[in-house]
Amino acid sequence: MQLPQDSALLTHPASEVAGEGLVGYRGGELPPISVVILAAEKDMSGLDVCVRGVLAHSLNPVVLVQIVAQRLPPRSHDDVDSRVVWFDERHCTPSSRDMRQYLRGLGRDPSTASWYFQQLAKLQCFDILPADAPDHVLVVDADFVFLRDMAFVDGQGGSVLPYGYPLSWRLNTRVHRLPDQHTALEAAGRLVPGWLPVDAYSGMQHHMVFDRTILGELVQRAQDAHGEPFWQAFLRTADPHKWTGASEYVLYRHFAARFFPERVRHRHVDAVDVIQAEGHGGFVLPEVVAAARNSSLRAVGCHRFLHYAQRLATMDYIPVDLRHTVCAEPVPLQLRLHGGLLTMEKAVPPLTLI
After folding, report:
1. What is the dihedral angle through the alpha carbons of 123, 124, 125, 126, rounded to the nearest 10 degrees?
2. What is d(CA 141, CA 276) in angstroms, rounded to the nearest whole number?
């Protein structure tokens, strides 16, 4: 795999990054990043939109966009960018098959292997990148699109992490608190000694900036504590009774904030996510992007979930009364985050986002 030469990288002068408050790196230029996007078959129709959003709106020079998938969809000649490469997910170690076998050996449901595979591929992203890749990786879910210019590493080399959704979904308020019970918090605490949440925000917002040093320390602490490879420790400490028995974004954001506060900063990203059941019909990612064209949103997502009603029912960060409401009629929903304020309503066509 050959990376482009430095002369081919985009740079942004101080005037363009001042709005993010991130000036100060080599006269206003920001550090380069790699990008990793995991894509399942259901994501292929919107993958191009996701990639174009990153390339168009990252204020940090992007040296490489690595698509981790079983195939790379056909692209027109006009869309070809030498920075966009495909990594066959079947070459990942461990593989999804390895995880199924390990879960089966633990007496767990092996059908969750695909969910944990994508989480662990993110947490081991540096293993599938060239050795000389930048020390920061922007991981983006394939069903999420950036609409406005954003910096992901600041002028001092600090990662800019999303606050994301509250750890407990309280609607129509910016006052959030830690929940009494949260599967991802408990799993992270079992995995890494000394891990504790730093605030009431999850870090879950379909993207994360991983720092090579921070991620390496997280992995090493988990391996030292459990005496086994990181991926096995991650699966062993996940909640076996939940479809989403752990969260890579919760784990990493709070670890970074607690143990490496000087290397990270945090921000709210105003965005709308449409969530819906897997299957025919419903909304597609380009449609949601088009609906937000004239809005002030910085990003949008369009997500399809297998076992949609079941997953809503087991999400313990949704309070019981709200869970009953959304599970009674599991229709497409639009979730809006605005400066930490979470609102929710049904997503109905024609979709209009302002």
Report:
1. 130
2. 16
